[in-house]
Amino acid sequence: MPLDLASICASRPQNDIHYFSTVGSTMTEAGRLAMDGARHGTVVIADEQTSGIGRLGRSWISEADAGIYLSILLQVALSPARLPLASLLLGLATAEAIEHTAGLECDIRWPNDILIHQRKVAGVLPHLVDGCVVAGIGINVNQTSMPEGLRTPPTSLRIESGGKIQQREPLVIKLLECIDTFCSMLVGNGPGSILDAFTRASSYVMGRRVTVDETGKRGTTGGLDENGFLLLKLDDGRIEKISSGSIRPDYSV
Ligand code: BTN
After folding, report:
1. What domain range is 211 assigned to?
2. What pLDDT, on a 0 to 100 scale, did the predictor assign at position 156?
3. Residue range 176-200: average pLDDT?
4. Which of 174, 198, 222 is a domain's end point?
5. Are residues 50 and 69 in the same domain?
6. What's the pLDDT at 252?
């Protein structure tokens, strides 16, 4: 069933909401709106994406009426160097919204994966367009079969909870509320508050053995720097700052 837009709009009278039953990518539409100077909190949401964009040039499979495919404009004045903070903020908001509405505990893998039982249930993607953060969130809700062969196996809320999620709207509404909360935290209390919250919410930030996909480097995570980059204590004792790429657990020792 398509989203009930009226209930989402009623809960967000302060925001402009652009809905598409099918769209290439909400990121592209939201990027256009950002270029046109659209307001903070403007939302683009779709029931289906035909060219969903994932991180690192990957695609985001966006089956019709099964997931949440949303981009929101955040006018939070982050420089490109601080964009990882937006990723952390969005991950926190997404995990909290899922936990609150579906009652499923999430982990967040730096920088942008929301995991349940080590399977990926959601991903977030911040782009900077004309000084505005275009924040993309994809959540697998009612998918029953997921693509195979991915390095991190995907999952959905339906698979994890064992039953169909009857309504996606409460999750959308809670997600937008949580984004508001963490944006206010960033603006009001500064980046340190987001870094602290992420460190508490993620099992990957401190003391975890990981491998960096792109380089094969291994080490133990040692926290976040002031911009949200991950610090990795390599096995030779050096500290390396991971600014892009993906990590996964290292079970080799
Ligand atoms: C990732 O690779 O983990 C990030 C995925 C982000 C997907 C969302 S779905 C809504 C928005 N529109 C897109 O095309 N991508 C993001």
Report:
1. 204-249
2. 98
3. 98
4. 198
5. yes
6. 80
Which of the listed residues 137, 171, 244 should we mutate to test ligand 1's pocket, taking the one with most ligand atoms within 8 A of CB? 137
Nearest residue (by CA) to ligand 1, atom 3, is 123
User: 253: pLDDT confidence band, cut at 50, 70 and 90?
Assistant: low
Atom nearest to 53 CA in ligand 1: 14
Q: Summarize the confidence of residues 84-101 as an average pLDDT.
A: 98
Nearest by Cα to 205 from 214, 213, 215, 195: 195
Same domain? 162 vs 224: no
Q: What tens digit of pLDDT does each residue of 153-168 get?
A: 999 999 999 999 999 9
> Can you give 99-160 as a three-state secondary structure string?
HHHHCCCCEEECCCEEEECCEEEEEEEEEEECCEEEEEEEEECCCCCCCCCCCCCECCHHHH
Count up the domains in the chain and report the number: 2
Tell me, yes or no, whether 73 and 151 share the same domain: yes
Q: Cα of 102 to ligand 1 centre, how many Å?
A: 20
* The predicted structure's pLDDT at residue 244: 84
**Helix or strand (DSSP H, E) at 80:** none
Pocket test for ligand 1, best of 53, 83, 139 (most atoms within 8 A of CB): 53
129 and 238 share one domain: no
Q: What is the CATH number of the domain that holds 225?
A: 2.30.30.100
> Looking at the predicted structure, is the pLDDT value of residue 242 above 70?
yes
Cα–chain center distance at 7: 23
Say whether both 58 and 146 belong to one domain.
yes
CB 45 within 8 A of CB 2: no
Helix and strand numbers (H, E) in the chain are: 6, 12
* Per-residue pLDDT tens over the stretch 22-44: 999 999 999 999 999 999 999 99
Same domain, 145 and 235: no
State in Å: Cα 63 to ligand 1 middle. 13
